[in-house]
Specification:
Layout lengths: L10 H31 L4 H4 L19 H13 L5 H8 L3 H12 L11 H13 L9 H4 L17 H13 L6 H10 L4 H13 L2
Helix pairs in contact: 1-5, 3-4, 3-5, 6-10, 8-9, 8-10
The structure holds heme C (2 copies).
One heme C binds next to α7, α8 and α9.
């Protein structure tokens, strides 16, 4: 209740102040409830994605920690509809209502992502150049959309700290899939077509180490 004292200025300012405080405090407590609900749901996901969204099995599963809640919801929706084909994730997505997806997205999105250990500094260095400058065949620098630190922005997902195997696999999927209905995935496909195999490996290795 201490914030209210800052509103104790004049009658008019006080009212404006109270009105501005009310929605914020509601939103904050709503978030806490949603994240708590998400944490319960996340127990089902923990075996593969880790209880805090950092997977214990980087060779097989992606991290969800620090990912945008909206992106998590979109991908769960895509798994459910089959737009993103994956039998395993479809089963889990099928068990979630829209509000559950939002809650689990809010929970994982609020967790801190842990980078993967460095494996080969030379390869990772090559990957950094692709990330910041683009590929030899003219794919634009990844930072343009995924942000300077790979933390994503708007519709562009976080790609930092993701296990190398997963990023590489996703780049292959974007490159090899015949077509996507989702315009964002189509956008990423035009990029992947201009990144060769060696560049894909290097940039995936670099992204894994990015905090
Ligand atoms: C048995 C293992 C397993 C469990 C349990 C599991 N997942 Fe997954 N999840 C995967 C795999 C494998 C992928 C990668 C799918 C692909 O390659 O397209 C994935 C991918 C995802 C993605 C896409 C990530 C991205 O960066 O695009 C999201 C979101 C996701 N899972 C959410 C969940 C949620 C939420 C739960 C719990 C309700 C859950 N998963 C439970 C194995 C699992
Ligand atoms: C013009 C914008 C743009 C550029 C440049 C771009 N991306 Fe993307 N990327 C996207 C969008 C949009 C998505 C989400 C697509 C979807 O919904 O499937 C995406 C998704 C991804 C994903 C999947 C993430 C996940 O967890 O599911 C990876 C990995 C990725 N990009 C890597 C890269 C790399 C590496 C580069 C640089 C070589 C790059 N991107 C350049 C727009 C871009």
């Amino acid at each position: 209740m201490q914030q209210i004292s800052v509103c104790n200025l004049s009658y008019a300012v006080f009212f404006a102040c109270m009105i501005s405080l009310v929605p914020t405090s509601f939103a904050a407590s709503g978030d806490v409830v949603e994240i708590k609900h998400g944490q319960l749901l996340a127990q089902t996901c923990a075996a593969c994605h880790g209880a805090d969204g950092n997977t214990a099995n980087a060779a097989l599963y992606p991290n969800l920690a620090g990912q945008f809640p909206d992106y998590i919801v979109l991908q769960l929706t895509n798994f459910k509809s089959g737009e993103r084909p994956n039998g395993l994730m479809r089963t889990f997505a099928n068990s979630l209502q829209q509000s559950d997806m939002q809650a689990v997205g809010a929970y994982f999105g609020a967790q801190k992502a842990k980078p993967q250990p460095s494996v080969d500094k030379t390869v990772e260095g090559k990957g950094r150049l692709i990330f910041t400058r683009g590929s030899a065949a003219g794919a634009p620098a990844c930072v343009t959309c995924h942000g300077q630190r790979g933390h994503g922005q708007g519709a562009f997902p976080r790609v930092a700290s993701q296990p190398m195997q997963y990023t590489l696999e996703q780049l292959h999927v974007y490159r090899d899939a015949e077509k996507f209905n989702n315009p964002l995935a189509s956008e990423m496909k035009t990029i992947a077509l201009k990144v060769n195999e060696e560049e894909m490996r290097a940039v995936s290795a670099y992204l894994a180490t990015l905090p």
